[in-house]
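Module 6 notes. Inverse folding takes a fixed backbone as the condition and produces residue identities as the prediction. Think of it as a translation problem where the source language is geometry and the target language is the twenty amino acids. Below is one complete input and output pair. Work through it position by position during the lab.
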């Protein structure tokens, strides 16, 4: 039963809009960038968040923006 909850949560994270760690697509339109700089005091790594829209073959943005993160 516990494994059901784990798999449900992992699938649900995709719906919530958490940033994807997948590779950024080749053709996209940049919507927004947010930068979290590293903090030496808390020893937290910095991250860069991108909100992108995929583009079709002609270069027109399609779909809703998708969030990606880079460490």
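Target side of the pair, the amino acids:
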């Amino acid at each position: 039963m516990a494994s059901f909850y784990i798999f449900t949560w992992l699938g649900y994270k995709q719906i919530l809009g958490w940033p994807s760690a997948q590779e950024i697509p080749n053709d996209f339109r940049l919507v927004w960038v947010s930068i979290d700089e590293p903090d030496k005091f808390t020893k937290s790594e910095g991250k860069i968040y991108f909100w992108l829209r995929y583009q079709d073959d002609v270069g027109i943005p399609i779909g809703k923006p998708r969030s990606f993160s880079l460490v």
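Reference fact for the lab report: The chain has one domain: 19-70.
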